[in-house]
Design a protein that fits this description.
By secondary structure, the chain is of the alpha+beta class. It has one domain. The chain contains 3 helices and 4 strands. The chain has a two-stranded antiparallel ribbon with strand order 1-4. Strands 2-3 form a two-stranded antiparallel sheet. α2 crosses α3.
Length: about 110
């Protein structure tokens, strides 16, 4: 029996870019989890007195709301900012300076 040169070697056949995809997925999940847990802490900062409007025929009447409401657009910006902060801390801070790994290195 002769030897075959088509032996499966996992290190050589596993695509290297998939480790970047796995790392990106884990960092994304952690960032969303942190943002989801931290965003409610900022809800009191975004409270404001909104307007309650109702329409009578072609005239719209607005009056101040009885209860303060949270401004959802500001909470969305806070949520996105926390996710961005986690990405910057991981890819620039920890991975770049602490682990001394390039973000995309040539192979």
């Amino acid at each position: 029996m002769g030897s075959h040169d088509n032996i499966h070697i996992p290190k050589e056949s596993w695509p290297h870019f998939s480790w970047y995809v796995i790392e990106f997925t884990i960092v994304t999940l952690i960032a969303f989890l942190i943002a989801f847990q931290v965003t409610p802490l900022f809800e009191e900062m975004t409270m404001g007195q909104g307007l309650e409007c109702y329409q009578e025929s072609h005239i719209t009447k607005c009056s101040p709301a009885e209860e303060p409401t949270a401004d959802e657009s500001v909470l969305n910006w806070i949520f996105a900012s926390i996710i961005t902060l986690v990405f910057l801390v991981w890819y620039i801070g920890i991975r770049g300076f602490v682990l001394k790994k390039k973000i995309l290195e040539n192979r």
